[in-house]
Amino acid sequence: MKVLTVKNPWADWIIFGCEGSFKTTENRTWETFYRGRLYIHVSKQLEDNPYFWTYIRTDGKERHEYWKNQSGKIIGSVELYGIDREIKTEWDEPGLFHWRMRDPRPLDVAIETRGALGLWNYEVRNG
Question: What total of structural domains would you count in the chain?
């Protein structure tokens, strides 16, 4: 399955939401022709800004308790359904490609694995 590595808090906001809403756009300097379900992997680099710690996840849990534990793990999946450069949401940054995502699905158990640049593949292992 395709995987995109994203820094926290953004990865967490994509999968778990923030105060009732989800991050539905990921901004990138590049685009892909791929469309479909992809995993969200949490980068080992953390956006270390205490401002973000004031937000509560949609599931009611405080974020900072989870960010460091998510580092280096696949935490869920989303459907990548489009990429454009139009400003449509509060998440869109001018001059970048806006990866449009929907249907976030958290994993019951995060998958620890090394990340990579770009869109990369992870082979799901059974058993």
Answer: 1
